[in-house]
Amino acid sequence: MRTESIISLIIALVTLVCLFLIPVMGLSTYTYSIKVMGFLMSVSFYNVNYTILIPSMVATIVFVALSGIVPLFWKSRYSLYTSFAFSVLSISMLVVTYIWVSRYFLVNNYLVVPTENGVFYQLSSYNLTLGFSSYLLFINAYFDGMNAISRSTWLDRLIGRKGTYIDLVIGIAKTYNIPYQKTEDGVIVGNDILITQGNINHDKLESKEIKKMYIIKDSHIFLIDTSKGEHDPQLFELKEGVKRILSDIVEKVGDKINIMYKDDYP
């Protein structure tokens, strides 16, 4: 999981915690106050206190939680767009809550005081404010939007981080339209070559699809060539290992060209 997605997950978790600990919005006078916190609205009038469940705030919390966990379990670029959509929906539910409070608890400058068996009106000056946790929803949506637009690469551009060998392989695959699939710490090219910067993936090795596995470790590259029935890793210097990776990818390009023109040149 990329650092950018982890940052968004942390912001989503902080937002969730603050939604339950800090009021999202409040309406107050000297005798009467309303506080929206979590998915409940607490009403205090003199010495009477009670709570009301707000469905729109339930939806807000659910959407914030989904915006954080979707990229964690769904390894696809579309998860970033989905996460951003959920964060925008959480803001829309906050707006719905704000409209509901300002419209149904304020009527012609009168405050509507709900009670257990009805309502009554109070003419008084009031303050309708948004709490700190409501602004966190916008911050959460901002970072989710950055991830969706940049495909979780905005941090690399911000700090000027250089691309990795995995990025180089993906760039070549895109250029020559070679099918590839991103993994948690690497990429699968042409459905049978796995290039990773993590540990040996034994599940992939046991499958019949992966024929070669390259593991990039610091200044060395390990190669496991299961197409030859080998399971012991071969050690190469970084430069030599990169040459072998690029050689295999060029071979994929040649195979693709042969498939494209095999009917023209029997």
Q: What does this entry look like structurally?
A:
By secondary structure, this protein is α+β, with helices and mostly antiparallel strands. The chain has 8 helices and 14 strands. The strands form 3 sheets. Strands 9-10-11-12-13-14 form a 6-stranded mixed β-sheet, covered by helices on one side. Strand 2 and strand 3 form a beta hairpin. Helix 3 (77-104) runs antiparallel to helix 4 (132-150). The protein is rod-shaped and about 85 Å long. The chain starts with a helix and ends in a 5-residue tail after the last helix. The relative contact order is 0.10. Residues 259-266 have low confidence and may be disordered.
Key phrases:
single chain; 266 residues; alpha+beta; six-stranded mixed β-sheet; five-stranded antiparallel β-sheet; 8 helices; rod-shaped; disordered C terminus
Secondary-structure topology with pairs:
Layout lengths: L2 H19 L3 E4 L3 E6 L2 E6 L2 E6 L1 H19 L3 H28 L1 E2 L2 E6 L2 E6 L3 E4 L1 H19 L3 H6 L5 H11 L4 E3 L3 E4 L3 E4 L5 H5 L5 E6 L2 E6 L8 E4 H24 L5
Parallel strand pairs: 11-12
Antiparallel strand pairs: 1-2, 1-8, 2-3, 3-4, 5-6, 6-7, 9-10, 10-11, 12-13, 13-14
The dominant shape is rod-shaped
Strand content: 25-35%
Radius of gyration: 28 Å
Give me the secondary-structure category: alpha+beta
Tell me about the largest β-sheet: 6 strands, mixed
Sequence of strands across the biggest β-sheet: 9-10-11-12-13-14
Strand tally: 14
- Give the overall average pLDDT: 78
**Low-confidence runs of at least 5 consecutive residues:** 259-266
Order of helices and strands: HEEEEHHEEEEHHHEEEHEEEH
Q: Gap between N and C termini, in Å?
A: 46 Å
Q: Which percent bin holds the helix content?
A: 40-55%
